[in-house]
Design a protein that fits this description.
By secondary structure, this protein is of the alpha+beta class. The protein has helices at 3-14, 32-44, 60-75, 87-94, 98-117, 128-141, 167-177, 193-208, 212-241, 261-276, 284-291, 395-401, and strands at 23-27, 47-54, 79-84, 121-123, 154-155, 158-159, 242-244, 248-252, 298-301, 306-311, 314-319, 328-332, 346-351, 363-366, 374-377, 384-387, 391-394, 414-416, 421-424, 428-429, 442-447.
Length: 449
């Protein structure tokens, strides 16, 4: 067995990437990394199925890469699935970067092949250099500790058997095996940050330390160990300070004075990932903004459809925050005749004083002195209500005093005429509409469950 194959096998055993009887979908572009991955896995004795995506970005070059992969598989009796997908079009339609669109397309296709063939794992060709480039990239842009650990050897059913192999070892192995490979010329273009790191920054670093790739990789593994330890600690804290419902995650910030910034940051990242259901990398700046969010303020991670709101010391992490649509429905006209088009969400009718068993079960208002059409609506800017023994008060201030979450305030129903708020459902009734045993026209407004 060649030393390169031994190294790949040791990586597989070290990280428990594969069992002997598993079938692998191998992502193969035709480049050096993926060809070395395919050849080494087959040489070790694994059953491999090739998946190739033609991104339709490089014209004839991309077509030649596809042809090469298909012919290599045919001549070596390897099952191969290939597909052409217009990644540029997808990038424009979804308004995401070309790199992100390409990545999404590849992994979706790999999963498709996995399900079709009943394979167990997906192998991709990230190597030691890729890991180092990721660490440097995250260091430059600003990252939490987890971003400096580079690339994981395993992520669920996606494995990276070449993660401890350098690019030089890969090319040397292919030369020994007399296996050709294709060169993606876009990797030589320094318009992309990662290419600048690969083609400019790392060569400069090698002038100072020829073994810089190994050094940074080793450091990234130390960071990974430290990261896993802290992660375990945070996991215990989440049981105390984090709550989750069907559509939101809540973090009690009263714990802030007990922890340093590192733990606070981890709790925030944990809540974000729980809310959106996937791992993301956040910059230190983002974490600081969320950590310092003042009461009533909101911060959005728009790419993930997530909003974070501070509601009186509780951070609420919620996906797909929907802005409440303004509503207004006529309840009764100026003569006190009920509208026959009342919203089915509400039970609205006249009742007698004797029918009222519990004033907390619904909102009851006396309209004996109201000679205008009455509506049920959500709040408007500047709304005020006159409350007994309190005086006139802004509806907004009432919500603040009652500690009503900011994203719920526009969903609370108000009973009003064109120029006056008569009641805030389930909260307050205007002084002029209070019900007593002398009330003749008592209107009941109740939300249907």
């Amino acid at each position: 067995m060649h030393k390169f194959e031994e190294k790949v096998l040791n990586t597989i055993k070290k990280y428990e990437l594969l069992s002997n009887d598993e079938t692998i979908v191998v992502g193969v572009s035709g480049g050096a990394d993926s060809m070395a991955l395919l050849v080494s896995l087959i040489s070790i004795g694994y059953t491999c199925i090739v998946a190739h995506i033609n991104h339709q970005i490089r014209g004839d070059e991309a077509d030649n890469d596809q042809k090469y992969v298909e012919e290599f598989c045919l001549s070596n009796n390897i099952m191969c699935y290939s597909e052409k997908i217009d990644v540029v079009k997808i990038s424009m339609e979804q308004k995401i970067s070309l790199e992100m669109a390409g990545r999404n397309v590849r992994y979706n296709f790999f999963e498709k092949v996995l399900n079709k063939t009943s394979a167990q794992k997906i192998a991709v060709a990230h190597n030691k250099n890729d890991c180092v480039e990721t660490t440097i990239f995250n260091l430059i842009r600003g990252s939490s500790l987890s971003g400096l650990k580079g690339i994981n050897a395993k992520n669920r059913n996606v494995i990276r058997p070449l993660i401890e192999c350098s690019r030089e070892e890969i090319v040397e192995y292919l030369d020994f095996k007399s296996v050709d490979f294709k060169i993606d010329k876009t990797n030589l273009c320094n318009d992309y940050t990662r290419n600048k790191i690969r083609n400019k920054i790392i060569p400069l670093m090698k002038e100072i330390n020829p073994g810089v790739v190994d050094t940074i990789y080793s450091n990234s593994k130390i960071i990974e160990e430290e990261n896993n330890f802290i992660k375990g600690c945070v996991s215990e804290y989440t049981k105390i300070y984090v709550k989750q419902t069907d559509n939101a995650v809540f973090l009690d910030t009263s714990c802030y004075n007990k922890f340093n910034n590192s733990i606070k940051s981890r709790l925030i990242i944990y809540c974000i990932e729980k809310a959106i259901g996937k791992h993301i990398e956040l910059t230190k700046k983002h974490v600081e903004i969320i950590s310092n969010l003042s009461n009533g303020k909101m911060f959005a991670l728009e790419n993930n459809g997530l909003t974070i709101t501070n509601n009186y010391g509780i951070l609420c992490f919620k996906v797909d925050f929907e802005k409440t649509v303004d509503f207004s429905h006529l309840i009764c006209d100026e003569k006190g005749v009920l509208s026959d088009k009342n919203d089915c969400m509400f039970d609205i009718r006249f009742v007698s004083f004797d029918e009222i068993k519990n004033f907390n079960e619904a909102t009851y208002i006396c309209i004996d002195n109201i000679n205008k059409p009455i509506y049920i609506r959500n709040r408007k800017k500047g709304d005020k209500i006159k409350i007994l023994n309190v005086g006139t008060k802004k509806v907004k201030d009432i919500f603040i005093d009652k500690k009503v979450q900011k994203d719920l305030r526009d969903k609370i129903s108000l009973i009003a005429t064109d120029d006056e708020v008569l009641a805030i459902c389930n909260f307050n009734v205007s002084q002029k509409c209070l019900v007593d045993e002398y009330s003749k026209k008592i209107l009941m407004i109740k939300t249907n469950d």
